[in-house]
Amino acid sequence: MSERPSAPGGGRNTRHPTGIRVVLCLLALFALAAGPFGYLMGLDADSHAGSAAEWFTLAFGAAVGIPFLAAAVATVAGDRRAALWSLALLLWPVVFVVVIHLLRSAG
Questions:
Q1: Coil, strand or helix: which one is 106?
Q2: Which pTM value belongs to this model?
Q3: Exposure winner among 2, 44, 53, 89, fewest CB in 10 A?
Q4: Cα dihedral sign for 40, 84, 80, 21?
Q5: Is the pLDDT confidence value at 31 over 80?
Q6: HSE-CB for 63 with a 13 A CA cutoff
Q7: Are 83 and 71 contacting, i.e. CB atoms less than 8 angstroms apart?
Q8: CB 7 within 8 A of CB 68
Q9: Model confidence at 106, in pLDDT bands (50, 70, 90)?
Q10: TM segments (predicted)?
Q11: What angle do CA 69, 94, 29 make, to 5 degrees?
């Protein structure tokens, strides 16, 4: 059993919900930016230093791993809504991969 007392009034035991949401927002911004960047660099790896596998690993880690990390942080903090929004970021890789390939085939 935990040594910490439960929240007054039977509410959530989150001490700093604003701080948790700021951290989650920073993680989300990193996932939104690093995923497409790594994927684009992986597609264009022959003209840059580094292999495509390294860039695709970065893209996958950022686009999938970071939302899971954010959901875990939100769950531990007791913020279910933020955890669900973090898991909703898992749709982002599907969106940016489709958009990138549609733009490459169109032009």
A1: helix
A2: 0.77
A3: 2
A4: positive
A5: yes
A6: 21
A7: yes
A8: no
A9: confident
A10: 20-43, 55-77, 83-103
A11: 45
Q: Map tokens 């669900």 to a residue.
A: 84
| Own/partner long-range contacts of 57-64 (Cβ < 8 Å, ≥24 apart) | 58/34, 59/34, 59/35, 59/93, 60/93, 62/30, 62/31, 62/34, 62/35, 62/38, 63/31, 63/34, 63/35, 63/36, 63/38, 63/39, 63/92, 63/93, 63/96, 64/90, 64/93
Measured CA to CA in angstroms, residue 1 lies from 4, 6, 16, 79 at distances of 9, 11, 22, 21
Helix (H, G, I), strand (E, B), or coil: what is residue 93? helix
d(CA 80, CA 66): 17
Residue carrying structure tokens 């701080």: 19
